[in-house]
Amino acid sequence: MRFTSVRRAPRPNLTGFDPKAFAAAAGTPKNDPWARAEAWRYTGPFTRWNRFKGSFPGLGIATVAFAAYCGYEYLFLKDDHHGHAEGGHGEEHH
């Protein structure tokens, strides 16, 4: 059994008031009394970069340490035990 959606026509506006048209006509005020009170939220220590910067403490140090360890492992910790062409344990193992 399939349900079909019922599409209804938009309801008529009885008052004649259109909130979207009202908001478009109002626009932004020329002199916003709250602009100065809201400005501090986006300046100084509250800028977008400063808020994002503290989100991952230690990520930079951890990335550098991990990269250094990967380099150390690649250069100095060669494992000659595995990967022989004869595949498996050779005669050097007893």
Summarize the structure.
This protein is mainly α. 39% of the residues lie in helices and 0% in strands. The chain has a domain at 35-80.
Task: Please explain how this structure is put together.
Keywords: Electron transport, Membrane, Mitochondrion, Mitochondrion inner membrane, Respiratory chain, Transmembrane, Transmembrane helix, Transport. Belongs to the complex I NDUFB3 subunit family. Its main location: mitochondrion. The chain has helices spanning 19-26, 35-39, 48-53, 59-76. Helix content is 39%, strand content 0%. The chain is mostly helical. It has a domain at 35-80. The chain is elongated.
Number of helices: 4
The topology string of helices and strands comes to HHHH
Return residue spans where pLDDT drops below 50 for at least 5 consecutive residues: none
Strand content: under 5%
Beta strands, count: 0
Q: What about the largest sheet?
A: none
Q: Roughly how much helix do the residues carry, as a percent range? A: 25-40%
Mean pLDDT: 80
State the distance separating the first and last CA atoms: 71 Å
SS-based class: mainly alpha
The radius of gyration over CA amounts to 34 Å
Shape: elongated
